[in-house]
Amino acid sequence: MRASEKFLSALEAGLAAFGLSLPPGAREKMGRHFALLSLWGRRFSLTAISGAEEVAILHYLDSLAPLAHLPPPEGPCIDVGSGAGFPGIPLALALPEVKFVLLEATRKKVEFLRRAIEDIPLPNCQAVWGRAEEYGRVTGYRESFAWVVARAVAPLRELAEYTLPFARLGGLFLAYKGPRGEAELAEAARALSVLGGEVSEVWHYSLPGGEKRQLLVVLKVSPTPAPYPRRPGLARKRPL
């Protein structure tokens, strides 16, 4: 069986296990993204996972997991630290009526994202090259998104400063985490409070194959104070 066939077969099985359905053409478009990822992956160090089945489950299905638990967003979304497009591209393919911004600080990864958006195609996606600390202060980005999603970017205490400034009041920040998610949540309690977030829930789920995951759901309950996000580097050096 070819890698593309293995990928689609594993994806189909995972979607069934989660009770998810995708709009017409979305599976084929995920297959195109997977093909581009396979072609560009080594050159641009896009992902350490290479097996077709593993990529389907650990990247694509995991990216789609919130749709098995939460109602779809009512407004635009931003993927902070999008990398190769996870979770933003799978979510955008599943929600073609929702606009997604893929924000990434590494230029070569943005080149990949823009190529993928053009080739798939993904008219509801825009890849933006820049740092969260800078765009989090820009009108049209700050406090403008229904969902702010981030996966494999940073510890939550640091990540909160990159993400919460983008969430509009009543919007959600969704942090994809592994087994330490709740521990990170405890460590980030002050940061979330300062930045205007309030923990809504922690959803525990398992991917096919048994990997345990946690989705940390943070509700934006008050505006992020003007000093945040701080200049680049400070959230990592001196997390809240």
From TrEMBL:
Its EC number is 2.1.1.-. Pfam families: GidB (PF02527). InterPro entries: rRNA_ssu_MeTfrase_G, SAM-dependent_MTases_sf. Transmembrane segments: none annotated. It is found in: Cytoplasm. GO terms for cellular component: cytosol. Keywords: Cytoplasm, Methyltransferase, rRNA processing, S-adenosyl-L-methionine, Transferase. GO terms for molecular function: rRNA (guanine-N7-)-methyltransferase activity. S-adenosyl-L-methionine binds at residues 81, 86, 104-106, 132-133, 151. Specifically methylates the N7 position of a guanine in 16S rRNA. HAMAP family: 16SrRNA_methyltr_G. Belongs to the methyltransferase superfamily. RNA methyltransferase RsmG family. This is Ribosomal RNA small subunit methyltransferase G. It comes from Ammonifex thiophilus.
